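Document type: protein sequence-to-structure record

Subject area: structural biology

Format: plain text, a pair of labelled lines:
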Amino acid sequence: MPYQDPQQDPQAAQWPPPSYAEPQQPQPQQPQPQQPPYQHPNGQQPHPQPQSYGQPQPQPQAYPQPYGQPQPYGQPYGAYGEPQPYGQAHQQPYGQPYGPPQAPFPGYGQRVKQPWLVPPRPGVRYHHVARTAVHRWWRPIVGTLLILAYTIAAMIVLLIGALIINTMINGGTYEAGSGDSFFKNDTADLGFQLAMLAVLLPSVPLAAWAVQRRRPGTVSSVAGHLRWKWFAACVGLAILFCAVSFGFSLLASGLVPDTSSSDGPETWVGWSRFIPPALVIILLVPFQSAAEEYVFRGWIIQAIGSWTLETRKGKVGRAFSLVFRTPWPGILVGAGLFMAGHGYTGWGMLDVFLFGAIAGWLAFKTGGLESGIAIHVFNNLMAFLLPAAVGKLDIEQGAVPWQYVVADVAPMVLYALAVVWLAKRLRLPTTTPAAALATQPASAAHNVPVDDGMPVDDVVPVAHETAARQEMTGAQEMAAAQEMAAAPNDSYRTAADSTPPVSESASTPHEPGPYG
């Protein structure tokens, strides 16, 4: 066959011709010896070793490609099917494998958002509940100012509403009553006075949440809420107290000469005159009494109890610290303020003070306000309903004979002893539960003693580890991450990781009963 130029005859370029071509036999691939990968001293993934000329490049394991199929020019390894700009090279930091970017080491370089509400320390009594991990000396003061501001604002709003109602009733003109009367109606005036005190009730939970960063229910009890079953048991004892107190009052009235200037004996006013004020009393007295308990027994005792002065040095400082770690400063201050809020004089002041002190002591012994609220509600119901039955809606305050003080205090002492006995019999928990450890930071679970109300060297834990991690620089984060990667999985353990869990018996002196 004569020679033909390939440029003139295209079929001549194929040699040998297709009809005479012999089939090609595939040559077996010789396995290439694999070299062991280089191990970095710190255990990190080394930079990929360069391959010799002619050897196929290894493909990423996350996105495998057929053997020998080349990648498009300039396209880096990445997500399958994801378009890449022309000529852009895949940039990976030294020692990092191909694949999705690795997240930074948890806890380093990330500002972890802490929850607003901080649980109380486990195993503490009622007066130390407010001394949480975020306690500062100024929080009780700011909380008290918030309660005062809320009270003033609520009373102003209530006063404006009363003026509007008075004007609407009187046909567009305001007509004030004589003396202390505001509506020229005894029932309306009594309701207004009780409402002025009842508006204090939301102020204490608000201050606990907004200022002290704790659950509002921790003011009610160490359980974090009002223990309704235990409250029902205290109500039963309070009803017995009312019966005993009424009997003691009858005995005292026989020992005190009658100096009243009334024209005749007091008589029943009838149901038509008794039912309206009775409804107002029954509806508002529970809120009025509970508000006073939350302010004078709840907030005052816990606010002063959070100042333990445990960091004070010297003889004087340590002496004050021994006193302020007990519940008695809060109990006495709360009872004194409670006495100042009433208009009694002489022996009557002692009567009110002892009532507040006994209610505060019960809050400490039972771990909550349930017993104090129960006795306060039924004492005030009896104090308002009995005079209302004879037509007296204005409670007369002032001097009180000592016989009436004894007749009032003696049943209260019996009630307090019965409450403490029943709480022990029912094994009522009087300290915060140990379950609070589950929500505490890891570094805050150390050195948490059981608080029995006596002077102890209790230390308020603070999450130092979290704060230290938040202050780390970028270089420190990289060094810490390399150290963690080089260490074995179970060799890098902090003190918090090796701390044994706190048992139930080590944090709560009483087993939980049915009223927990």
